[in-house]
Specification:
Elements (H helix, E strand, L loop, with lengths): L3 E2 L2 E4 L6 E4 L2 E2 L3 E3 L6 E4 L4 H18 L6 E5 L2 E5 L1 H10 L3 H30 L7 H11 L5 H15 L4 E4 L1 H18 L3 H7 L15 H23 L3 E5 L2 E5 L1 H10 L3 H30 L6 H14 L5 H12 L6 E5 L1 H19 L14
Antiparallel strand pairs: 1-4, 2-3, 5-6, 7-8, 7-9, 10-11, 10-12
Amino acid sequence: MSQVLETQIIHCHECGLQVTVENLPACHKAHCPRCGHKLTENRPNAQERILVFAITALIFLGLSLPFEFISFSAAGQTQTITVPQSIIILIQNQYWPLALLQFLLILLLPLAIILAVMYLMLCKYWQFYPAHLKPMLSIIYFLLPWSMAEIFLLGVLVSLIKIISMADVALGFSFFAFMGFVVANTAMLLNIDKHQLHRWFDKKIEQQKHSSQNHSKNTQATWALLVTAAILYVPANLWPIMQTSLLGNTEPSTIMGGVILLWKTGSYPIAAVIFIASVVVPTAKLVILAWLNMSVQSAELEKPRAKTFWYRMTELVGKWSMVDVFVVAILVSLVQLGGTMAIYPGPAALAFSGVVIATMLAAHSFNPVAIWAKPTQHD
């Protein structure tokens, strides 16, 4: 007999509407009737699946650290790295900001989320509800957008395309273990339902309601972050993002320069991915968030459903712009063959990281409920 969830009252995260969901059958979803946001989903055995995927992800993450990740051979010289060594090499070459980003975004934060989720699932299993569960849930959902293991993996694949014509590249055991980690981690996250997670701990936790009043502080913070991102976007595109040294000759490469080079060498899909992630997405995020923030500030409340859709898009694709930064970090740590061949990060790498971080924070600071603050006939 399929499991049916009892009647629930849910406050929509994106428009603030209070929705009553009655008798949701297993494997069914409930969507907000006003903005279309997915409110909850009845996943059978969700707790067990989340725990299994979390443990699997943790095992694969452990296996991805000690063994060979990638090896690079050119002119009789070979460079082999593990994931931790790639970070150490960046630190040794004084590129500690890139090392810090890589350590936080692909190792520490994903690990923290996995351990926190495992702890929550075990608390649920043992019916143990300590007082710190509420802040822990808030921290998990704040950290989720900053977990970028899957983007790092795409960055590795792009890096291979860039250098495979210059040298022999081999993938080690840790690379495939890291792929397993990304798959298991993604499966864990896909099985987590925010509303159901709150319900599991409803003995101590009440789901927060989203206020639609006094948005002035939100809009000011969003404007400050958007202005910061716009300022950083100029040097991020004009300055070189990396520099390649081959037999003493150094050649700088900008973001667009890398896209053009990939296109000329026939790597059309990779060139398209980099162009969309590094040029189209950041520009679109700046324009869309500025438009949404301006419409909220000026109380232009027409077509709120369309505006909510574009807000979702900025949240969904925003972090994928970090792929170019990971490409630089991988190439810098892998291609260090002395005077024969070496790759160094350019100043645009940090500027572009700032653009991505600032736009992600801007999307987080923007309150989508403000779009629906005073429902109109277009609702």
